[in-house]
Amino acid sequence: MVSTGVRLQKTIAAAGLASRRAAERMIQAGQVRVNGKIVVALGTRIDPETDKVEVDGRPLPLVAKVKRVVWALYKPRGCVTTLHDPEGRRTVRDYFPRTNQRLFPVGRLDYDTEGLILLTNDGEFAQRVAHPSHAVSKTYLVKVKGIVDPSNLRRMALAPKVDGKIRRPLRARILHSFNDKTWCELVLREGVNREIRKLFQGIGHRVLKIKRYQIGTIALDDMRPGDTRLLGRNEVENLLSGSH
Fold it and tell me: Is the pLDDT of residue 100 over 90?
């Protein structure tokens, strides 16, 4: 271990073993050894070239040998955005039965929300896309009960309030209304649990359906629920090239 170098959790994430936050939990739980000694301090820095890192007794693969992969999944409704579910529900892992890659989801979608989600073996990529400080946009189609008043939608977008807290402004527009139902488009750059449902509830509308169809420059296009596809290098680079 060294006083300079790379933070331990960042090294674990870059090796594709887990997201950075999950790596921090592993360290605090005593699952990580450096040069044979258990390390629990999150500020620990190492030299990835010389220090030997083990997670749950298994050597950490060298970062240089790990090829980053990013998959797009059209998550159906009735599927949880996790790799294991104690209740036995379908998980995003169920859609990758033929790969032995260690994939984990980038961000999340609610159980009853469908649409685009990315999975990767690269913790740094996951951090870059999911964290609101990097401002990668997420675009949703939302179907609500009732005819939405445009002025209410503008007010909601300029000062969105969730659980009593004002959130970052978002973009919102009405697509069309028909038979006492309205379709809207929302573009978020951060998200909290069930945020869209709570926002529309705040202006008097019950959400009937949510579909996320785009993350940054990556869109569902003609994908159907349950479909997966491996992103090309240019797609990944374009997604990471800046705010969208």
Answer: no
Q: Is the pLDDT of residue 6 over 90?
A: no
Topology classification of domain 6-65: 3.10.290
Can you say how many angstroms the Cα of residue 107 is from the centroid of all Cα atoms in its chain?
2
Contacts of residue 71, defined as CB under 8 A and 6 or more positions apart, other chains included, come to 96, 103, 118, 119, 120, 228, 229, 230, 231
**Cα separation, 12 vs 241, whole angstroms:** 23
Q: Computed from CA positions of residues 74, 79, 85, 91, in that sequence, does the dihedral angle turn out positive or negative? A: negative
User: Greater confidence, 132 or 196?
Assistant: 196
Q: In terms of residues, how long is the chain? A: 244
The DSSP symbol for 20 reads H
Q: What is the pLDDT of residues 223-234, one digit of tens each?
A: 999 999 999 989
User: Pairing between strand 114-120 and 207-215?
Assistant: parallel
Q: 137-215 adopts what CATH topology?
A: Alpha-Beta Plaits (3.30.70)
Q: What percent of the chain has pLDDT over 90?
A: 48
The predicted pLDDT at position 82 comes to 87
Nearest in space to 9 (alpha carbons), one of 72, 57, 60, 49: 60
**CA geometry: angle at 139 spanning 136 and 144, to 5°?**
145
- Fold match between domain 70-133+218-240 and domain 137-215: yes
Catalytic residues: 110
Mean pLDDT in residue range 107-120: 93
Q: Does the 70-133+218-240 domain belong in CATH 3.30.70.580?
A: yes
Tell which residue, 138, 129, 78, 139, has the closest CA to residue 104. Answer: 129
Closest CA to 74 of 211, 209, 226: 226
